[in-house]
Amino acid sequence: MTSFWVYFAAKPLWWIIVTIATFIFTTWLNRRVGGTPLLHPVLVALSLIIVLLQLTGTDYDTYFEGAQFIHFLLGPATVALAVPLYDHLERIRKMLVPLLIACACGAVTAALSVIAVAWALGASESTLLSLAPKSVTSPIAIGIAEKIGGYPSLAAGFALITGAIGCLTAPMLFRWLKIEDDAHKGFALGLSSHGFGTAFAFEFSTLAGAFSGLAMGLTGLVTAFLVPVLIRLLGL
Question: Does this entry carry the keyword Transmembrane (predicted)?
């Protein structure tokens, strides 16, 4: 079995197969348990792959070398979000100013609230800086954390956790606040839960997905500019 594993682990395509097979399995598992965000396919697949890498003694560079084609596809997948946006372009134009204001307010609130809570609980400065960009998609969160002095890996982890929590709490909040418009639901999910929220929004409708994708992009852009300024103003 050891020889068998060494042979396949050395093949680049092996890790693509492992990644895709794990995600297919976790997607099936998530549907079997009712689609709960607690067992989000991305989080469960991530955990299983980490365990596999630990058990086999495989370093991340070896894994990434084999699975980097999937990483490459993140670009086209993100660009593809422009398709539903184009389909609802007229409505977005009419709401552009309120959306920009909501996005700026949401980005500032997300950063300041998490910093305030973490500071009150005694978190270190490095942790505060890693938490600040937690509401944007992981690649942007990593870049912001590097720029302001946080831990990029920690920022990526916080972003994933934030996305899962947002998907978990959103349906309940929508019911409590009596939010029925899919555009509003989608924008809220994209703003607070980035890629996780966008994937979840498409389960409501393409309209919700379009507005979620818009919010995800705008929030990433706004946060990248505002968070470093807020950090300097707070003296961190």
Answer: yes
Which residues are CB-contacts of 177 (< 8 A; sequence separation ≥ 6)? none
Q: Which string of b and e fits 31-65 if b means at least 16 CB within 10 Å? A: eeeeeebebbbbbbbbeebeeebeeeebeeebbee
H or E element that contains 117 = helix 96-120
Does the pLDDT of residue 75 top 80, yes or no?
Answer: no
Considering only CA atoms, give the Rg of the chain.
19
Cβ neighbours of residue 202 closer than 8 Å, sequence gap 6 or more:
208, 209, 212
Q: What does the alpha-carbon distance between residue 168 and residue 74 come to, in Å, rounded to a whole number?
A: 24
CB 118 within 8 A of CB 131: yes
Q: Output the DSSP codes for 127-185.
A: HHHHHTTTTS-HHHHHHHHHHHT--HHHHHHHHHHHHHHHHHHHHHHHHHHT---HHHH
For the cut 50, the answer to whether the pLDDT of residue 4 exceeds it is no
Give the chain's largest Cα–Cα span: 62
The CA distance from 123 to 44, in Å, is 27
Whole-structure pTM value: 0.74
Give the list of residues 6+ apart from residue 137 with CB closer than 8 angstroms, or none.
159, 194, 195, 216, 220
